[in-house]
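Homework-ish question, so no full write-ups if that breaks the rules, but can someone show me the predicted structure for this set?
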Amino acid sequence: MGQDLTALGLNLNSMENLYQSFGGPFSDGPARPQDIDYPVPSEYLIN
Amino acid sequence: PLGPTPLQKDHQVQFQMMEAAYYHLPSPSDSERLRPYLQRQAIATPPHFPQTQLPHSDTIDFFQRLATETLFFVFYYMEGTKAQYLAAKALKKQSWRFHTKYMMWFQRHEEPKIINEEFEQGTYIYFDYEKWGQRKKEGFTFEYKYLE
Amino acid sequence: IDEPPGFLERSEYLLKDWITIFHTHATRDPIKSFSNFVNKMNIYGILKGDEALTRFFRHATQMCIDVTYRNDPTINNTKIFKYIDPYVRLIALLVKHSGETSNSTTKLNLLNKILGIVIGILLKDQEVHKQNFQQLAYHRIFIMLFLELSSSDPVLENIMTNVLTAFCHAYHILRPSIAPGFCYSWLELISHRVFLQRILATAPQAKGWSMYSQLLVDLFKYLAPFLRNAELAKSVTLLYKGTLRVLLVLLHDFPEFLCDYHFGFCDVIPPNCIQMRNLILSAYPRNMRLPDPFTPNLKVDMLSDINTQPRIHSNYAAAIQPPNFKKDLDLYLKQRSPVTFLSEIRGHLQISNEPGSRYNVPLMNALVLYVGTQAINQIRAKNQNPTMTNIIHNAHMDILQNLAVDLDNEGRYLFLNAIANQLRYPNIHTHYFSCALLYLFDEANTEAIQEQITRVLLERLIVNRPHPWGLLITFIELIKNPSYKFWDHDFVHCAPEIEKLFESVARSCM
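A: Not a homework solution, just the prediction itself:
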């Protein structure tokens, strides 16, 4: 019968594109904001 | 008519290599920059803890509802990520300003005594991330050219 | 061979020196620390020529790999990354700053050289370590180098399409059938959100989509032998589910990509991989509104999109080999003779270089699509659109009917699959092949053919969603239109659960 594709951790009804927060082929959920590298202004890199 | 067929030799070799690789799979953090503070660490929490992200938790509306200290925590401990970006936006909506010269967040505390094209001098609150709290800064001059 | 004495030590010293620079705060001024380091590389003779540079990268890459084997990656990947990430940054800076800003050739030559070195070491490593091969370092090098080179920077933006080409070329060389020990990382790399963005959303579409379709074909070809069984091994299930996730993202965000390249994918997806194939065939252009297939009295031939030509980015006509077969085929299509040609077709289809199957599936798919498109062209030349009446009694239908009658079970199954693979969103191919399939059912001279047509449709309908629109409207027409006498056939009542299944589908249709 194949898989239940709605249970693979992807929000298939999302109005947004999924790829921008795609957690990868082996992850059960989207990438969280803290997982996604983002081009923040260099001054924010206070480390 | 297309029932199972025995694997050919080279497919068997491929299968063995895949089986071996199956036991040390890539983890999501292998594809992410090293985080200076909060490296992604999958830890099994009790099942009654929320196991999936809250809906819309990657939106500015969600971040705007977070407490100021929480936003500062995200900003300082998740640097270089989308979370930091969203926290910065939420702080600005709470009328905080990031001073790119001092690399600190300030919020006007009361009407400044002096205002001109270059700067405004007054009493400001800043977030002291070493003591993790908001503190007043009397007579501070906020130079517009450094305002982000 | 004949490496200058001390070269390895110098390389090791330089790499460690750079790692220290990278991790200290000197990176507050990255350009200055980089230019100082380049001077040092120069002094140590690394930059004096192509060969020295190649040696340096080979040693430096090998050192990164050795770190992985010395540390247990499951415990200590941070330590490994603290070693690899600086090395990757050095590569990215050297690529970006080599040659004049406008001279992309030197930059890309250097990038391709380094990717080639990493590939060479990976393949050698896999050969040496076999089941103990560790993919982590290579995974890290590829993904971090790609992220470094795709950061928003005017110099890099300028060479981005070539950078993508270099990485696609590298990933194609490292496809799972060549580097099976790297297959999980490989799927991570080709489906990384930044890679997807770059290759499918921002790169020039023709180039990016075509390169990406090649990588997916590599993946399907690798998976095919392991998917022939109903029960999949855990390691295969993981890779298969990962593939489904990637396809779902593509279906949701880039459906036109799946529409354009479906034909090439169906050539390599094993016929029993029904749900994955349905997923690809269910894609339809985002600007299209699909009428509900269950709409009572839906007039398919009145739909505005039903006569649009779908884009198919596969040269299926060229896939009809050998040339004399194509010549005879074109001759028959043109003058509907010699009739003897019909009896020769099966022989050509049974020459399969694919061990394990007696038929040449890509040739079958190409033949069916070619005959169908030629038929459509002929109908369109008369300013008509396909209907149940104008698709019959011609050379094209002779060939399809001959295939339905002349082939054995396996061959006919593959033939009917080739037709069913064209039942997609409203377009003229869907329309033609839907009519053709219903006509073959209607005109079948044995019930076995009708049963097999029903099986091919049914097995695509009973798997979990999604289901292609064209498949649904064809099956609904078959069970609704009394002229096909569908319900009179014994095979419809061959078992209670089958009968119940048909009735449940019928109810949802009515």
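Now go work out the reasoning yourself. Hint: The mean pLDDT of chain B is 90.
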